[in-house]
Amino acid sequence: MLATDVHDFTIRLVMESGKTVEFSGPSDITRETSDAIVNAANSSLLGGGGVDGAIHRAGGPAILAECKQIVKKIGRLPPGNAVITSGGQLAAKHVIHTVGPIYRGGDSGEPDELASCHRESIRLADEHGVQSLSFPAISTGAFGYPVPQAAAVAISSTLEALAAAKHVSTVRFVLFDSGTLKTYVRAAENLSHSSPASPFRIEKAQS
Ligand code: AR6
Separation of 97 CA from ligand 1 center, angstroms? Predict the structure, then answer.
């Protein structure tokens, strides 16, 4: 008897163009073999805890050295923006560093900034010929964004940006714990009922 628990089964969203949005977990994004992974950084770009700390630890000092060069040129990175470095020792060729909003109740522009993180990361990935890109659950840890609201914004902005991409064809949300995975999957199912601007069908997939 096959278990149909979310640990074994998750879903994949398939757009009319064949581009896909996948949900995986519980997984560690530093182990991803996609062309690029996204880092939930802070404006200093000098590393931190959570997924940021894990990416710098696993990727080695080359990533931080590149971040320091970027900061020299452009200064602090505002929320909603994204920059790209190499992947250092990671399997992924690139790391895209974006800064999510700190959640302050939801009425201070957080949804727009979080949507911009996804749009800008996909746009930058596309400029670099990236075909597959993995995101963590940006802003839902130290920055305190409630997971259900963050998931809805992350998925809808991703679908919109993915529809416009020339190279990026697969986006994967790599969720660290099963609660976050379940919430992202539920948000995607809810979105499919609300006739989104970028239509998709839902398929079952192995996590
Ligand atoms: N792989 C995938 N997801 C992870 C991993 C991992 N290895 N580690 C943690 N997560 P957070 P934020 C999940 O706090 O809220 C940093 O200090 C985690 O469970 O990493 O955007 C930065 O420097 C949560 O679901 O990012 C910033 O100062 C999600 O990643 C600040 O935290 C995001 O949690 C950014 O806060």
Answer: 12
Residue 36: domain span: 29-169
Tell me the CB-side half-sphere exposure of residue 82, using CA atoms within 13 A: 29
Whichever domain contains 110, its CATH number is 3.40.220.10
Structure tokens at 146: 């409630």
Domain count, the chain: 1
Summarised one tens digit per residue, pLDDT across range 31-57 is 999 999 999 999 999 999 999 999 999
Return the number of other C-beta atoms located less than 10 Å from residue 5's C-beta.
Answer: 10
pTM reported for the whole predicted model: 0.96
Q: Contact at 8 Å (CB) between 118 and 154?
A: yes
Q: Determine if ligand 1 sits within 6 Å of the CB of residue 50.
A: yes
How many other C-beta atoms are found inside a 10 Å radius of the C-beta of residue 104?
12
